[in-house]
Amino acid sequence: MTINTLDAPQAVTGSSTDTTRPRVARSPDETRLMYGAILIGAAFLLLGVVFGADMVAALGSVTTVVGTIIGTFFGVQIGSHGKEAAEKAARTALGKLDPDTADAVIKQL
To answer: How confident is the model at residue 43 (pLDDT cuts 50, 70, 90)?
Structure first.
């Protein structure tokens, strides 16, 4: 068993000679999450530099806005999931009815 170490040319050029393991690409969601976390961390760092002593007030303002946005995002996600589940249940129920009865129900909706 060998340990892969970076030799000088790899460290300078950033190239890799290890081809035994293919590089796995990140999904768009993982990339978005990573950059979002970096952006939030940078924003808090910037707030600390700009506001200094008034950090509590600035942090309170930022967390209020961020909390509202995150709450809205998850609320919409949960709502759309519930809608999909309800529509699936309605399609299943309509599929078990006679075609004439199902058409009458659809016209009433």
So the answer is: confident
